[in-house]
Amino acid sequence: MDIEVRHAAHPDAVRTFDTEALRAHFLVETVFAPGRIALTYSHYDRFVLGGATPLEGELVLGAPKAIGQKTFLAERELGVLNIGGAGRVRVDGTVYDLARLDCLYVGKGAVDVRFESETPGDPAKFYLISAPAHAIHPTRIITKAQARHHELGETATANRRGLHQFIHPEVCDSCQISMGFTLLEAGSIWNTMPCHTHERRMEAYLYFDIAPEHRVFHFMGEPHQTRHLVVASDQAVISPPWSIHSGAGTSRYGFIWAMAGDNRDFTDMDHLAIGELR
Questions:
Q1: Which of 230, 228, 242, 225 is nearest to 277 (CA)?
Q2: What CATH number did the domain enclosing 59 receive?
Q3: Is residue 121 scored above 90 in pLDDT?
């Protein structure tokens, strides 16, 4: 298991970043490494994101030094969303089968967490997100059918999309993490525009279902100092609380959004008019 530590960056400093520096601080280029667990630890709300891609056998979630505990979930909670083939997660001996686009919430205090693929030739790709937890909530699976679903956007503005909320106060209890995904319809390319910020929590985006020849332009930065990252499929972006987070693709795509911070109120956003952006 590998873990990379990313420190927080002040917005004044980010204004001076060139492309390489911006990507080094905020883009996670390798989330899924075949046969390994690869993690990135962000000092924004001590949020961890990464991927578990089991092939033959199982992968065990250990506790690297950055976590500071004997077990990974001693003082943390975990969200798992599968974007690959069918797989299973074993939590302290209990087996949870996850089809593609199913989600698992694992509560604080779980000791033994293991990931397996049902078929090594079509491996599961478990996207993992974690943040510190102050209480224990039950581990539970949330299937795609059980998620809270919303249809958003308009064809005229090229942002017709389906929002699926999994770890959300009206679906599954948690301490501070929220998690779900959004799928754009054919012909739509924009997400989260008009955009917003939310100073009370950070966010991370994992972009997926992008054809190899296509990319998403992820917009970030202060509203009056915008920047962009060019993102391929299965890459993730760390979004600071002070940053906008919006994107436009060269084709349709999906993204998993996940948040941690002061609250789990999905509507706690500071909205911006398009004309305010610079």
A1: 225
A2: 2.60.120.10
A3: yes
